[in-house]
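SAMPLE LOG
Freezer: B-3
Tube label: C17
Construct: single chain, 89 aa
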Amino acid sequence: MEWSVIWELIDPRLVGVVAACWAVGFILKSTPAVPDWTIVYVVVIVAVLLTIWMLGWSADSVVQGVLAGSFSVYGHQVVKQTRSIGKKN
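STRUCTURE (predicted):
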């Protein structure tokens, strides 16, 4: 799946939420006491809460929050995997 397909589903007002989630994920990854498997869940919960705070409570806000959090995790993995390909060659 391409970035553009996912990005079209996310409300443009949530660019800051995606960036904030990327930063939260980076901070959590750098914290030794936080298990890696929990990072995805924390990032998505933060995204949903920020989205509800910005857009108000609705089912659409929850879905948008999940999309924003998921997109930030997906974006991080794309960058990480692309870098690892460059290191192998």
